[in-house]
Write a structure and sequence with these properties.
- This protein is an alpha+beta fold.
- The protein has 13 helices and ten strands.
- The N and C termini lie far apart (72 Å).
Length: 400
């Protein structure tokens, strides 16, 4: 491959290389547009109607496995049938596609390969249709359809996702995250080695990083082998933080599963977990709604219990952040403190046992919730967090 052969780059290094060398690469990248030589009639992967506005011609595109297709040489043959029986065939090597500079023919082949590889149901929409619909507004009318023109698909999707984020269209943001994951997983040259961790999470091997989605694409944890844990929140950049950790702490952090994702935005939670003795099984056993509620109410005076229940009825949440089946609905102030105390081996009676101690806890929780540096969450989770604010406001009123 011109420009990157025999070079091993991390994904971030590769993106930088593409930005600096794009013009020359667009001129020279023609290998996957070479007319096909094979005559094999492989299995049909997909078809689509395509209009090239530059030439005004209509095509029926078909993608099939070439007869020489192997895992080491994933060749896809794309046929463009035109009116009058004219036909042009192109051979596309999936391993050579670079989504930072790929033609429509290449992307059509890649998307059909992805759908076949991932076993997408026939009635489901195709990746090709989803990709083109998502980036269409990024293209001028003259660029909208042109078989051979190279485009930076990854940047186009990223720009569209950014526009949706600004407009608070979070469902479309999630669609963009899925497309970016798809493009990074399947559409990078072989020299850029990538690994997948969990669903829709891609990490460059050379970076030595593990990335964990903690809120449907709106926030993530990054575990860097250089000795750092970072939290990033796309809805409130000010909520991000980082902390230096030892190699042993980093390994322990990576054992913490997705069931604790709701608590991962809190740096204090991580500090308690990494410095405490409690293991993951102990934490899982603590996620019991009735046990936590019983632990809370056991030592509270009756007027406080009544005020708590009254505030819960008015706000639509009791501040624990869990359903009765133990499912975590949102990262509540109470449960974050409760889990931290458990991990430190401290008392879990975090509200104390007097009106004054509960008032102090409620005021501290409310102040924390109203801090501008607090994370913003996906719509469903944020709705619960807003109810939590109302809960503590009502609780304070009833205890005064």
């Amino acid at each position: 491959m011109s420009g990157v052969k025999n070079i091993t780059l991390s994904y971030q290094e590769y993106k930088s290389y593409v930005r600096q060398n794009k013009d020359s690469r667009l001129v020279n990248r023609s290998y996957s547009m070479d007319p096909a030589n094979g005559q094999g009639d492989g299995s049909l992967l997909g078809s689509a109607v395509y209009r090239d506005v530059r030439t005004g011609e209509n095509y029926e595109l078909k993608a099939v496995y070439d007869e020489r297709f192997t895992s080491d040489s994933p060749l896809i043959k794309v046929t463009a049938d035109r009116a009058g029986g004219k036909k042009q065939e192109y051979m596309v090597n999936i391993d050579e596609i670079d989504v930072n500079a790929a033609s429509d023919i290449e992307m059509f082949a890649l998307c059909n390969y992805i759908d076949a590889h991932e076993g997408k149901a026939e009635h489901a929409g195709t990746s090709w249709d989803a990709l083109r619909a998502y980036v269409r507004s990024s293209l001028t009318q003259a660029e909208a359809d042109s078989l051979g023109q190279k485009r930076d698909w990854l940047t186009m999707v990223g720009e569209e996702k950014g526009a949706y984020m600004e407009s608070k269209l979070y469902r479309q943001v999630t669609d963009g995250n899925k497309l970016i994951c798809m493009l990074e997983k399947y559409g990078m040259p072989k020299e850029v080695k990538m690994i997948q961790i969990g669903n829709n999470v891609l990490v460059p091997v050379d970076n030595g990083m593990q990335i964990q989605d903690v809120d449907g694409g709106y926030a993530r944890m990054i575990f860097d082998n250089k000795g750092e844990i970072r939290y990033e929140n796309n809805l409130n950049r000010e909520a991000g933080w980082s902390m230096e950790v030892s190699h042993e702490m980093l390994k322990k952090a990576q054992y913490l599963g997705a069931e604790f994702a709701m608590f991962m935005s809190d740096q204090g939670f991580w500090e308690s977990y990494l410095n405490g003795d409690a293991d993951v099984d102990v934490l899982k056993s603590a996620m019991n709604y009735k046990a936590v509620q019983s632990d809370l109410f056991e030592y509270l005076p009756e007027p406080v219990r009544q005020a708590w229940n009254r505030a819960a009825g008015e706000a639509g949440t009791d501040g624990l952040g869990m359903g009765e089946n133990g499912t975590v609905q949102y990262p509540s102030e109470f449960m974050t403190r409760y889990m931290s105390a458990l991990m430190k081996g401290e008392s879990t009676r975090i509200c104390g046992d007097t009106v004054e101690s509960v008032l102090e806890f409620a005021r501290t929780a409310l102040s924390h919730l109203e801090d501008k540096h607090q994370p913003r969450y996906s719509d469903d989770v944020q709705a619960f967090k807003d109810k939590e604010v109302l809960f503590y406001q009502r609780l304070i009123d009833h205890l005064m």
